[in-house]
Amino acid sequence: MDFASVSAISASGMDVESARLNAAAINLANIHTSRSAEGGPFKPLRVVSGTHSPFGKHLHSAAMAQFPAAAVVSVERTSLAPRLVHEPGHPDADAKGFVAYPGIDSVSEMVGLMTAVRAYEANVIALNAAKAMATRALEIGSAS
């Protein structure tokens, strides 16, 4: 596998993890948002990732077809049930005094953040290792 393939795979992995980080940060920032622009509580975001389309594989080398790069397919709003909290004085409270907040679990979001950071770091390490190997190969070739 050549350096271009390795760097493309690592870069696409970093793109996916960056999108996951952004989605988790937005979810955590809106964990107490009871009223969104669409009406109702904020709907949490989820990143859907996958490999490039089969058509895209034909455009890449055989190595890239063997090791397809990841890509962000979409960022979707989830339909999790809202979390109801009894706050009768809140302006968004219903007739029974309950306020609907997003069904976001802060622990799950934090675990997702940590996982995305670790995966991003792993992609950076892989890219740096490939770069170091390519540089060393050039040094060996120029020494002879």
Give the secondary structure arrangement, pairings included.
Blueprint: H1 3-29, E1 45-51, H2 54-59, H3 62-66, E2 70-77, E3 83-86, E4 98-101, H4 106-143
Antiparallel strand pairs: 1-2, 3-4
What about the largest sheet?
Answer: 2 strands, antiparallel
Q: Any low-confidence stretches, pLDDT <50, length ≥5? A: none
Radius of gyration: 22 Å
Number of strands: 4
Give the proportion of residues in helices: 40-55%
User: In which order are the strands of the major sheet placed?
Assistant: 1-2
Question: What's the helix-strand series?
Answer: HEHHEEEH
State the distance separating the first and last CA atoms.
23 Å
Question: What is the domain tally?
Answer: 1
Q: Which percent range describes the beta-strand content?
A: 15-25%
Global geometry: rod-shaped
User: What is the residue-mean pLDDT, rounded to a whole number?
Assistant: 86
The total of helices stands at 4
Class of secondary structure makeup: alpha+beta
